[in-house]
Amino acid sequence: MDHMGMAMGGGDVCPMSMTFHWRVEECVLFSGWHIKTAGEFWLSGLAIIGFCIIRELLLYVSKRHELKALRNNTSKRSEDNQHMLTEGLPKSIFRLPYSFRVVDALLYGCSVAMGYWLMLIVMTYNAGLCFFVLFGFIFARLVFHTQTKREQRQLEELSLAEEERDHCHVHT
User: Fold this and answer.
1) Closest CA to 161 of 83, 73, 80, 95
2) Domain for residue 79, yes or no?
3) Is 97 among the domain residues?
4) What are 4-55's pLDDT values in tens digits?
């Protein structure tokens, strides 16, 4: 049985291999993304690198969005509802607006979807495309990692300050 090709509509054939290979001809994610020439291969590689950068950007934007929401929420705290059943946890976490949670969920969903698409590109077993994914993630980490870590530290500091402020109040 020949597993090297899979018929597409109109007689167009996409090669399929279950071992790593270096072929230029490849179908990526969709039948419409059929690479046939070296030029298309390099353009696809640039698009893949762009997907990696966008995915890392989504993670960064998500952290930044979370920090902004927590800062806004902390500044609008009311002392009335300090005493909650969630004693010991930062109170601002439980009063985040619904709009924040929707945007956060959408950012997370887009990031997960892009991660799966990139995984499927690697699963074409095309070594060249795998290197584009690897290079894209390396480059994106180089660009966004420092900012993302800075945002994470600020979130942690804000959360610690929130907890310290809660422990200084007497609850009756």
Assistant:
1) 73
2) no
3) yes
4) 444 444 557 787 888 999 999 999 988 889 999 999 999 999 999 999 999 9
